[in-house]
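hey
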């Protein structure tokens, strides 16, 4: 990483209620056992907090790295867009998901102490326990770029060995495609070996070998591609709501043939106050544009290519 300053950045840890503090301590214990963090006396510090995930009834550790991100030079994306799934010939794909990709990529030893956090105690009855990450932390602005580069390097031997196969890679989601089942299986073996040799883990429970399969928000059958989500949340109250909605539309726009011109009334709502909490509401024109998008989500689909036909 390239840093704008070597002066330590310290943001104090805020108090946590008893239940959340207990969950934080358990998560820290788990990360210590996995070798993702170590105890430290680093002069850097950023706060942490936990959120409860209702679906799995579990807790997630989050590190607030906003101040740290301010003093890191941007790397920029290596993969500025999504691969087009319609370029995958019919009947080909196999989906492989990499497990907790960030936590399997080591931080440079000189950078690691800058990603430090502190665990407080109830009523300050003991000193802070302090730890820094040894692996790529979620929330660091360059983590996605580093992840893209690291996985691409890991896949390079498999791509060289199987040039006839199509190996798509976006972050920690992999898709393998080839003309025959035998070629798919051979490429799969090479991919799994390559990523494991790089220290990455394959989430075996998420390997998808039969149709339909899900990849990057799409539901793929042997011939067609449709969005997994076919209903938009169009209740807009703030700029943040609007940005999230446009992000969802942008994910499927090109594949479903939704043009920028059709979305102009919605884009116009971005003008004005840049505060994400600033108020926004849909105009009649924007509402009409979103109705067209919803209709496209429900009725349109893309198709995988037929190799024998020209593009």
């Amino acid at each position: 990483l390239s840093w704008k300053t070597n002066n330590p950045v310290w943001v104090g840890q805020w108090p946590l209620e008893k239940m959340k503090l207990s969950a934080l301590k358990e998560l820290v214990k788990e990360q210590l056992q996995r070798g993702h963090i170590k105890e430290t006396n680093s002069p850097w510090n950023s706060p942490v907090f936990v959120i409860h995930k209702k679906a799995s009834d579990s807790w997630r550790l989050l590190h607030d790295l906003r101040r740290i991100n301010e003093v890191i030079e941007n790397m920029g994306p290596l993969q500025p867009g999504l691969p087009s799934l319609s370029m995958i010939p019919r009947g080909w794909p196999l989906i492989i998901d990499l497990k907790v990709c960030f936590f399997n990529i080591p931080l440079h030893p000189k950078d690691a102490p800058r990603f430090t956090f502190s665990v407080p105690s109830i009523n300050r009855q003991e000193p802070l326990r302090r730890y820094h990450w040894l692996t790529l932390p979620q929330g660091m602005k360059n983590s996605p770029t580093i992840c893209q580069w690291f996985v691409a390097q890991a896949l390079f031997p498999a791509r060289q060995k199987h040039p006839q196969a199509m190996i798509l890679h976006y972050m920690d989601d992999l898709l393998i495609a080839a003309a025959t089942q035998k070629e798919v299986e051979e490429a799969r073996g090479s991919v799994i070996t390559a990523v494991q040799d790089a220290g990455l883990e394959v989430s075996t429970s998420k390997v998808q070998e039969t149709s339909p399969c899900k990849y990057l928000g799409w539901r793929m059958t042997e011939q067609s591609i449709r969005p997994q989500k076919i209903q938009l949340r169009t209740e807009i109250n703030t700029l943040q709501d609007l940005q999230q909605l446009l992000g969802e539309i942008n994910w499927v726009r090109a594949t479903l043939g939704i043009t920028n011109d059709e979305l102009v009334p919605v884009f116009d709502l971005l003008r004005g106050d840049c505060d994400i909490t600033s108020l926004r509401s849909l105009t009649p024109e924007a509402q009409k544009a979103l109705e067209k998008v919803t209709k496209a989500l429900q009725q349109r689909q893309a198709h995988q290519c037929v190799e024998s036909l020209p593009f």
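The helical segments are 18-33, 66-70, 143-161, 181-197, 239-253, 260-267, 284-299. The two ends are 41 Å apart (CA to CA).
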